[in-house]
Amino acid sequence: MKKIQSKWLFAAGIYNILWGLLSFFLPHWQLELLGIKQDLIVVLLWQCIGMIVGVYGIGYFIAAFNPKQHWPIVLVGLLGKILGIAGMFYYISVDAVPMKFGLTCCANDLIWVPAFTVLLVKALKKR
């Protein structure tokens, strides 16, 4: 099972690093695709979010080598994903962001929650 866990974390690492790089270097393209109005502060914040997501990716690579030992990284990742989903629903519900914004949340958060939950439960059971 460790190999499957490692594959999920490696995949999350690759995804997060690529998304982070894309967000940093091509923020206008992503924001336009998501229907987000752009001004300087929005672009700067989007680039900062990209940097944070990319750093998470490095953490997932580290955790992939030993998910049991690095369970706190998986926990922080899972919490970030759950809070990201909650924030998306809230901001869409108050019309702060367009419904298209949910696309980024699905790719960045929603699809990873089941795997991260399983990884965390298994790691904590083995402690």
Radius of gyration: 15 Å
Strand content: under 5%
Poorly predicted runs of 5 or more residues: none
Distance between the termini: 16 Å
Helix/strand/pairing category = mainly alpha
Residue share in helices?
Answer: over 70%
Dominant shape: globular
Describe this structure in words.
This protein has 127 residues and is an all-alpha fold. It is 80% helix and 0% strand. The chain has helices at 2-25, 27-34, 40-65, 71-93, 102-108, 113-125. The chain starts with a helix and ends with a helix.
Short description:
The protein has one domain. The two termini are 16 Å apart. 80% of the residues lie in helices and 0% in strands.
Describe how the helices and strands are arranged.
Layout: H1 2-25, H2 27-34, H3 40-65, H4 71-93, H5 102-108, H6 113-125
